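Look over this today:
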Amino acid sequence: MAGTMRRALVPVADGTEEIEAVTIIDVLRRAGVEVTVASAMPALKVTASRGVVIEADCLLDECGNGPWDLVALPGGMPGAEHLAGSELLMGIVREQLAGDRWLGAICAAPVVVLGRHGLLGDRRATCHSGFRNELRGLAAAVSDDVVVRDGNLVTSQAPGTAMAFALELVSCLLGGDKRRAVAGPMAAT
C-alpha cells in the first residue's frame, strides 16, 4: 500500500477518556493518516469522562466504509462499556482481527471491549491498572510494559501512556521513520 493514504477509525462515546481519544486522533493526523472519528452514541457530540465535549465526524452506523487500516479504541468509563455494547463496532473489531489489520486498545478498552468479548485469545496485552486482575483471566499473558504489540493488536495502559500508544500506532501503519518524524517536533519519544 505504499503511496496510499492509511485510514483509521476512532470510535468515541459518552465517558470516553478524552486524553486518549484526542491524542490518538491528533498524532495519527500529524502522520498523515485519514482519521474518522465516529460516535457510538445516537448523537455526534459526546461528553467525555472529564466533561470535555468531542464532536465526531459521523455516527458509527454511517461509516461502514471499511476495511480500515487501523481501528483504535480509547478507554475511559463508561465510554469503553458503550463501545463494547455496540454490535456494529464489535463486528468491525472482529473483522479487523480476522483480516489481520491493526487494532489498538488503551486503558479499559483491552478488557471491557476486547477481553469481555473473548477477543484477546492467546495474545499478550496490557491495560489500566484497575483492570489488570480481570485481564489475567482474559489474555494469554499480562504485561507491565507501557505499550504492547502482539501480532496486529496494540494495547496500552492509561491516559499517561496515550502518546507512546499513538506513536506506536504510527509505527505500525507507516514505520519507524514516520514515527520519529512525527515525534520530533512534539518532543515526544
